[in-house]
From TrEMBL:
Entries under PANTHER family matching the protein: PENTATRICOPEPTIDE REPEAT DOMAIN-CONTAINING PROTEIN 3 (PTHR16276), SMALL RIBOSOMAL SUBUNIT PROTEIN MS39 (PTHR16276:SF1)
Residues making up the signal peptide according to the UniProt record: none
GO molecular function, one term: rRNA binding
Species per Swiss-Prot/TrEMBL record: Hydatigena taeniaeformis (Feline tapeworm)
GO annotation, cellular component aspect: mitochondrion
GO biological process: mitochondrial translation
The protein's name in its UniProt record: EST1_DNA_bind domain-containing protein
Amino acid sequence: MIFLSSLKWDANTLHRLLDLHCATNSGLGGPNFFENLPFTDRGSLPEPEELYYSAENRVLENRRISKTLKTPVVVLEESENVEEVEDAEELDKNEVEKAKMDSEEVLSAESSSWHKGCIAEQLWAAHSNILRSTAAYAAMIRGAARFGAADRAWELAEEAISASHKLPLPVYNDLLRCAHECNNTDDVWPRLCQGFELLRNAKLFPNVTTFTFALYSLYKSNAKALKGDKSQDYADKALGLLSEARRLGIQPTLGLYANLLRTVYMSRHAQSGRGYRLAELLTEILTDLETRCWEEISRADVFNSTDDYDFANTAMICATADPSSAFSLQLVQRVYDLLHTRCGDRRFLLRNSLEARNFYSRYLLTKLLHGGGRVHDLRDLYRHHRQIFHADQGVYKVLLHRLKGVIARWEETFEDLKKGAAERNGIDKETLDTLESSASLAFEVLGEMVFDFVAITTKLPRRLPVYISDTLMPFYFVDPWCEVRSPFSHCRHPLRAISEAGSRAAYRAAAAFAELLCCQDSPTAITTSTAASPLLSTAEFTALVRMALHPTAFNTGADAQQTVAERETNERALACAIDLIMASCRSVATYGTPVSDVAAVEVLRSCWHTSSEVITWVVYLTLLLLIVV
């Protein structure tokens, strides 16, 4: 404070310095300042990738900090210097109380919030003879409003208006945006009305940002009330603001629509009997955007506010608010198409990685749970959104359930074919072909899912995730060697429980698993600790070995005759199975644990079917493993 007051600067320099500190919160930033990235150098802008993943990194950082112990507070000893205490008592009581309140505010304030001890406030107090212009008031009001000091912003605004300063429109807009943060404000609507009254008295014409920020305060006020098990019905007021904007000839933007939808969405909890239908409102908004301005939006646009980037995720949330509705699936697809198929790629409207994940997770869940569709549609969904499926276990499990259901229906039909009861159960040729092709494709997708899990995994955990283990189980129970003739065509190839394409996908996933297991160091190292557990369970290892051996069932002719390509394929499959068994032996904690014996028998079975010789080196090695284990 002394340093700031002792320097002699001209008025222009002081105003520019105040603008800088108000715009950056004295360099500390805030929730909307570069996404609150932990920059040490505020002079350099962040990379786009840093901004995109900043929210996700901030969540992970908060979790890490919450696990650390808090620094113990040093308690002052009771034996203080008596003379210093007596000297302090001689100070003016009002000065002491004021200094105490200011220091408490500074200490209790967050590092990214505005407080009376910040440099901007110090400049404001130290140069009161110069920094009382309209521009200085505007900078202070906007800085306080932006960085969490709403009461201070409104206080400065009233002071400026009393001094007959004509504040510009952006100042009133920021006052409306921070209205929900004012203390003792359970109902934000009177405060918003006060802001519009100030705007009318200043004879300023509102713009689209004015209504966008007013709707933002309605939304945030309701969100804050919901945390206290309360809710305000602001839907009618929000729709009234939209009507007023249109009456004034103001075209709504993405940000205005986003805050409108969020306000109505939050208000639906307080509606009883009557209420606004969110689906109809979203339909009207989508129609307006599709016909009016969507083609004009591009990555190079400078949007009116950061709220514009909230529209896509908000629209998807509102579209999935009532997933049981038949209309919901159409709305979800329309919102999705806005970002992908209509007028090119618009994914830049997703602010960060967390919002993108939420957007696609809601879309995929709705499509999987209520979209029906064939296995081809499920395959396309997975291939287009692999990262989302592996990042969101809920979406992954729903897809896995759908695919396992398709395979289960084929297995029931296959059992009927073996018993000769297919025709009696009303299964015709078309149904049989559909079930077989669907099951084949389902096995292919399951193999891709396992392969992708290995591809994105640098090191396997001590235990496989449950959803990955469940993905392996369909391959564990299927028998590729069993053949059944179709009752509808004698010329057709025999039917099997798993198709050749499905077996190839299974082998590809097993080979990737074997390679990763061979590269593992500590989890697969031999240990004498009885508390250690094997990397994979018996069922998981057996499933992987069977997946590796599935192609051998399709590469054996009469009397075990094989082409060169078939023999090479079988050798690769057997080598992969042996690698998996060796990995299982290394991961056994104690001798006698039945991890690889069943898998070894599967290798012997494949050797029996595929080898024309009496015994091979694979048989020798497998028998040796059985004896050792």
